[in-house]
Design brief:
By secondary structure, this protein is an alpha/beta fold. It has 15 helices and 20 strands. The strands form 4 sheets. Strands 7, 8, 9, 10, 11, 14, 15, 16 and 18 form a 9-stranded mixed β-sheet that branches.
């Protein structure tokens, strides 16, 4: 889908050719002298149109309007959440009418956040998965022009960031949605290598031999039950000076999680193809970086493998040695995410990072704690935690900080190794984070548990692309100010 930012008033929007013109009207609407304004005022007066978020009125062949169809859409106060809800309901109309081109015009001055909300909702509501359909039906909506009366520098920056964000979200959805036999560790490695052809990017994909040489005994123990060879993907994006320490993103890449010997029950096991949602979000962020090219250095690490039961699979009680040298008693082979992440977290040390953020569909306990609304966020560093929290709010991709008290680590004591890979059921999302924290002593670290937010189950089963928006927003907040930004700041003084 192609987005464009246009300078149009209500008057000039009326004469723009498109399939459907969408007019967003807040309850602060003050009619101008143009014909659309007059119509809106009349419809509101007659109570045929309400400015409540999501309320709409459709019209056909209006005199003085070039678009054949017009959708008047209430956006309440014009807050991002209202705009998001309204555009979400409008996408249903667009889809039903098979609209290919639309102009979305804001009847009043719009805040950057609300512009972003409109774009994100349109993209989310019209995304279609087609990779494994025999007769793919592509998304119909191909072109969206967002029209504002005055495209300020802030609006332009928000538009550029959001366009890149949407590319990343859709890339993440695409890979997370693919079934495990179409998204093997090898496939993920190839996708990363293809991405790395973009400016400022490079990629290295390690296989079983290299990983063994690095001493990633914990990662290898998860992969050993599968005939699919593991991959360790190292993506690099250099947008700032070489001397700038990078932010490292680590994505859990379990391309299918059966649970291993501690096998999962059959119902809904298919959803464990989404267990590489963390990896997909890292690929998505790199897609966004390739489009936006912000002034920040980022590394992406993806340990990728399947978790399968097999004659050679790791067994409950086995003790393995991680790359850090710490030994781990694997009491439950279904707690495999932390076993692959811990070696990637140790590998991250070599970049002397500013911060390391891991992203993982790690625990069912996090789904119980926070549901599908907020991702769980754990951090050893307050500035990093606050930065992620704010980025989540800005990008409408929420998270919530969870505790890391040392007392929680007691549950991981082992009689036979330095640490066990599971505690009890109590506080399961936190004990998982405490396990990871043992491998992150050399840098500020945060962990996002996206088990509840990375995909939806039921009839709308599919990946959400979260938390690409949060991560990209955070990276943008950490980027050196660009020349354009520096200029606008100087002129504001
Ligand atoms: N991939 C799962 C976590 C998961 C479960 C995500 C359900 C989304 C929905 C993870 O590998 C796992 O199996 N975790 C176990 C840990 C337990 C054995 C300590 C869990 O949460 O049950
Ligand atoms: Mn598991
Ligand atoms: Zn898993």
């Amino acid at each position: 889908m192609n987005f464009e930012l246009k300078t149009l008033s209500l008057a000039t929007a009326a004469t723009t050719k498109t399939d459907t013109l969408i007019v967003l009207i807040s309850n602060q609407f003050k009619p101008g002298k143009d014909s659309l304004s007059a119509l809106i005022a009349k419809a509101i007066g007659a109570k045929d149109l309400s400015t409540k978020a999501g309320q709409s009125l459709q019209a056909y062949a209006l005199p003085g309007v070039s678009a054949s169809k017009v959708l008047f859409l209430g956006i309440g106060d014009g807050q991002p959440s209202d705009v998001k809800a309204a555009m979400g309901s409008a996408t249903a109309t667009l889809k039903a009418a098979k609209v290919a081109k639309t102009v979305v015009v804001f009847a009043e001055p719009v805040q950057p956040q609300s512009l972003k909300a409109a774009m994100l909702a349109l993209a989310d509501g019209t995304y279609v998965y087609s990779a494994t359909k025999s007769k793919p039906v592509p998304r119909v909506l191909a072109q969206v022009q967002l029209a504002v009366a005055q495209p300020t520098a802030e609006l332009k920056a928000a538009f550029a960031a959001c366009t890149a964000m949407i590319h990343g979200i859709e890339f993440a959805k695409e890979w997370a949605n693919r079934p495990a036999n179409h998204a093997t560790p090898t496939h993920l490695g190839k996708a990363a290598q293809a991405l790395a052809k973009s400016a400022g990017m490079s990629c290295e994909v390690l296989g079983p031999k290299e990983v063994a040489k690095l001493g990633m005994g914990s990662f290898m123990s998860v992969a050993q039950g599968s005939s699919e060879p593991l991959r360790f993907i190292v993506l690099k994006y250099q947008g700032a000076s070489k001397a700038d320490a990078p932010i490292v993103l680590v994505g859990k890449g379990i391309t299918f999680d059966t649970g291993g010997i501690s096998i999962k029950p059959a119902p809904e096991m298919d959803e464990m193809k989404f267990d590489m949602g963390g990896a997909a979000s890292v690929l998505g962020v790199f897609k966004s970086l390739s489009v936006l090219q912000p002034a920040v250095n980022v590394m992406g690490l993806i340990p990728a493998c399947e978790n399968m039961p097999d004659g050679l699979a790791v067994k409950p009680g086995d003790v393995v040695t991680s790359m850090s040298g710490q030994t781990i008693e694997i009491l439950n082979t279904d707690a495999e995410g932390r076993l692959i992440l811990c070696d990637a977290l140790t590998y991250a040390e070599r970049f002397k990072p500013r911060a390391v953020i891991d992203i993982a569909t790690l625990t069912g306990a996090c789904v119980i704690a926070l549901g599908a609304i907020r991702s769980g966020m754990f951090a050893s560093d307050d500035a990093l935690a606050n930065g992620l929290h704010l980025a989540g709010q800005d990008a409408m991709d929420l998270c919530w900080r969870m505790p890391l008290d040392e007392d929680y680590a007691d549950a991981l004591k082992s009689n036979f190794a330095d640490v066990a890979n599971v505690g009890g059921r109590a506080g399961g999302a936190i004990t998982a984070a405490k396990f990871l924290q043992r491998f992150t002593q050399k840098y500020p670290w945060a962990h996002l548990d996206i088990a509840g937010t990375a995909w939806k189950g039921g009839a709308a089963k599919g990946a959400t692309g979260r938390p690409v928006a949060l991560l990209l927003q955070y990276l943008i907040s950490q980027a050196a100010p660009t020349k354009a930004k520096a200029r606008s700041k100087a002129s504001a003084k």
